[in-house]
Design goal:
Helices cover 22% and strands 25% of the residues. By secondary structure, the protein is α/β, with parallel strands linked by helices. The chain has one domain: Metallo-beta-lactamase, Chain A (4-Layer Sandwich).
């Protein structure tokens, strides 16, 4: 599995022959990439805020996944017809990937004035195997926490049953967790590697990533913190097995 961060909460996941883009928003200081350079098979949306769905219209030929409310908005506003509406706790199979929608604690109004809510906000766990209660040490999984505060489902459900190897957590504070809560999340999730995201895009969420690194160390977590440059790719398979 290869993970590429394009700034803010925008990630590109390559799993075998399956390409997944999460929260396309390329108007941020960590990327100069033209969104149309990417051709994902699937696009996952965590919630309806503009800094997470701004570039959805660039991917009209892709298949979209999100809450039913948000998928209805895409159909009505962008004529995007290939959608799968799902809800918290559900798992869908997307070619070579299994995607589980998990809880995020945040708001979820659609900024354009269309309706009032896009349903519940979410995070996603992307894995190469279907989640079960039986641990699979050979699986690879990536948890995109979405925009969220710290919540105990990370410790009580996501860590023991979805077993993420890599986690991306927001650290920008103000609208989401800040460095100290994000560090507790990393400790609870018991992942091998953690990436900060959702920071520096706007003045209220400007932070020093070294604060996050120090906070993770203070928890006693064994996770490696990887602060990626924008457009940088992390090979999770190589990290785990080579």
């Amino acid at each position: 599995m290869e993970l590429t961060w394009y700034g803010h909460a925008t990630w590109h996941v390559e799993l075998d022959d399956t390409s997944i883009l999460i929260d396309p928003f390329f108007d941020n200081p960590y990327t100069d990439t033209d969104p149309e350079e990417l051709d994902p098979d699937h696009v996952l949306l965590t919630h309806g805020h503009a800094d997470h769905i701004a570039d959805v219209d660039r991917y009209r030929d892709s298949h979209f996944v999100g809450t039913p409310e948000l998928m209805g908005y895409l159909t009505d506003q962008y004529s995007i017809d290939s959608t799968t509406g799902m809800n918290l706790g559900g798992t869908v199979e997307l070619d070579d990937a299994f995607v589980t929608m998990v809880r995020a604690d945040h708001s979820n109004g659609i900024d354009t004035g269309y309706g009032t809510s896009a349903g519940m906000p979410a995070g996603y766990v992307v894995s190469d195997t279907k989640p079960t209660q039986v641990a699979d040490e050979d699986s690879e999984s990536f948890y995109h926490a979405g925009d969220t505060s710290l919540h105990t489902e990370m410790r009580d459900v996501i860590a023991p049953f979805l077993e993420p190897d890599a986690v991306a957590v927001p650290i920008g504070d103000h609208f989401t967790m800040g460095p100290w809560q994000a560090a507790i999340a990393v400790d609870w999730l018991d992942a091998d590697v953690a990436f900060p995201m959702h920071y520096d895009t706007f003045p209220p969420i400007e932070v020093d990533t070294s604060d996050f690194e120090r906070e993770v160390e203070a928890t006693g977590s064994d996770a490696d913190v990887e602060v990626l440059d924008g457009e940088e790719t992390f090979d999770l398979t190589d990290y785990l097995y080579y």
